[in-house]
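Let's sit down with a protein and look at its sequence and fold side by side. Which protein we use is up to you, so please pick one and set it down. Label the sequence line and the structure token line clearly, so we can match residues to local backbone shapes. Go ahead whenever you are ready, and we will take it from there:

***
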Amino acid sequence: MPKPPITVPIARSSYSLVIHLLLAMGLVGVGLWLTASPWMLVALPACLWLVFRHARGQPIGMLFVHRLDEALYARWLSPNGELGEQRPLRCFYLGPWLLGLEIGRTRLWLWPDSLPGESHRALRRLLHRPGR
């Protein structure tokens, strides 16, 4: 009997936003320190805009992950309540807190605050391959 799919509610991560903001401000600060150019002050709003644009572009919603034979597949739940197209799921990074998933052609980073703890543990158990 196949196992029921893992339901993963995904939200936007504030950890990711803060880390990317700090990196962008550090990059502009180092550029300002090295060049002392007023153009670096123009780069700060541009970097901030790029960081916020990236943060807004992260996928959010309900993700259903299941295993068929030895392959993993994922489906997004659309806002109107229908399951989306089944796409292959591949884990390209499995760290202690951070998960890197590839769903079809979309890359998704799951930070600890972007999903509930129980869903995070269930997904890690499904993705972990013993012996690696």
Q: What stands out?
A: Residues 14-35 form the longest helix (22 residues).
